[in-house]
Write a structure and sequence with these properties.
- By secondary structure, the chain is an alpha/beta fold.
- Helices cover 33% and strands 13% of the residues.
- The protein has 22 helices and 21 strands.
- Helix 16 links the parallel strand 16 and strand 17.
- The protein is globular, with a radius of gyration of 29 Å.
Amino acid sequence: MLNWEEHSHIYQQKAAGHLWNSVAHDGVAALWLDPGYGKTAIVLHTFKAMLEAGVAKNILIVAPLRVIQTVWGQEIDNWSSLHGLKAARLHGPKKERWLDMKDVNVWLINYEGIPWLTKLAKSGKILPFDVVCFDEVRRMKNASGKRFKSMRPLAAMAKYRWGLTGTPVANGLLDLFGQFLILDQGKALDNRITKYRHNYFEKGFDGFSWIPRPKAKEAIEAKVEHYIFRADGMLDVPDFVYDERRIPLDAAARKTYNAMKRDLLTEVEGETLTAANAAVLYGKLKQMANGRIYGKDREVKIIHSAKSDALEELIEELGDEQLLIAYEYNHDLTQLRELLGDDLPYLGAGVNEKTAMSHVEDWNNGKIRIMAAHPASAGHGLNLQKGGAHHVLWWGPTADLDHYIQFNDRLRRQGNTAAAVVVHTFITEKSVDELALESQGTKNEFQSSVLSALTAVFGETITIDTENPQEITDMTELVFKADAAQQPAGQPAQAANPFAPQPTQAADPQANPFAGQGTPAPAEPAPQANPFAPQAASGQAPAPVQHTQQELIQQEVAAPPVSQAPVNPFAAQGTAGNPVVHDAEVVETTVAPPEVVNAPTGVNTPAPIETPVDNAPPADFVEQAKAQAAPAETGTLTEVVSLNIQVPLAKLDKVLSAIGRAVK
């Protein structure tokens, strides 16, 4: 089994310290770490330290369904340093029975289960959680959705709120609003999407898209950088090799495709298919590029089999190599099963938890050669790299950059010993496949610029001393696997158990259980010190004060005090550590919204535009209004404005309405 002291990377220890120190920011923290960086282990070890310190008693993990089924619970079993944690998954027909368990301290729920959990909170069956962690917090980007609105009051009651993601701005800066609103209740980016847009964006030429204003990206970065920890370039993982395969269409398929593109309608197998608007047209063209299209009543029509032919060629080229295929539409899966057999293993709609876990295990053990998966089902959290698989095929390119990055990184993770992960993509020539591919590149360039800028500001880069072989070993050779036998040989003897009391000195209950122990200092250590910060030996000169994020994640700082939990908006407070309590008195309370912040500095906000007022009277009937503020009297807060307007009586009602709208 793995042990944190032996097998954690330096960046993981720093990330754990960042979460521990989130008390400095009202319990808010975000880990922007790429897939494969071990975010799960970081969160669980931080919570374990908080549990032992009496800082937190329970944690709610909100994650995609496949991730709570196959990752979080297994991670606890893989680490000996996580003994004492017990997880319960709130999913399935028996989920309410788990609420009766009294020794659970890690609660797992998928995003689709949030409304059910909130309903229980309103009935008083659960108490607020001390820590709420959103795995793939980007799924909370829609602040107006039912899922977000259901979760917000419950999240507001937690003392600590953490967000995890590797693709925070995959589709633009607008994605950040909901992610941080659920964490900090609007303190950084405001609590209203309209204000956020007004501060940092302007309308696009199409009338509905939003384009960042000049310097908006830098201003947003400055607002959120204190929450975020990044660790780019600190892992030794395989590189990506991209193989784009162009698929030509035969004359008949090209004629059908072009007719739909040109006329928004085409005839397939005697049926006329139409597209009502541009969005519907894009979806239909995307299906046609893949080879099939839905007709009336979801009946599937065949357009071509060019991609099936290309798949046969690719399989022949790969020989015995494993291949993970990403599909988008159900008729894509149908094509795959027609070619490879109805027993083709896949991860997607209709696959239950037991079958999915069996597929993942067989895949990692090399028992499955070809497996299909939908990016929405297998794009987050799953570990599919353990068998050394390194070939991914996209049946068609996706415009969703988050799905693209996350799915590819299922194989490009710690523990994959392959030299490179090869990403094959089937691209139908002269089709919307090319537009989707272009969209990926544009979004990825934008996201990379944001992440690089944030890393430059606060994400410390670890420099490896090439003259110190031990440091090189620690950073590049230690792997992240469940099999301890695969750890590099020649490891130095480990220090005594850091979790046991020290025989020579009364141990500080909050001493760092994860970093090497130096010579004890004569002075009594500060209570509840950060358990993740390295401890200096006695007599060593103190490090200079740094006014950066390093001060929070490297120095020994006071642990978060055990404060009274916030008032539960749903139910009365209980005393047990487990959040489950029955027959609690319902308290109708609302969470006060955060104070609206002023417009951020540094953003080039255009001068106010005089917008014409509907139904305004003609200019020849109205003299220019003369407004002058009356001198404010001492002690009054009301500003008096006098208006002198001459209008015809017939136009009076319209003028008053126009003035009312203008003042508003």
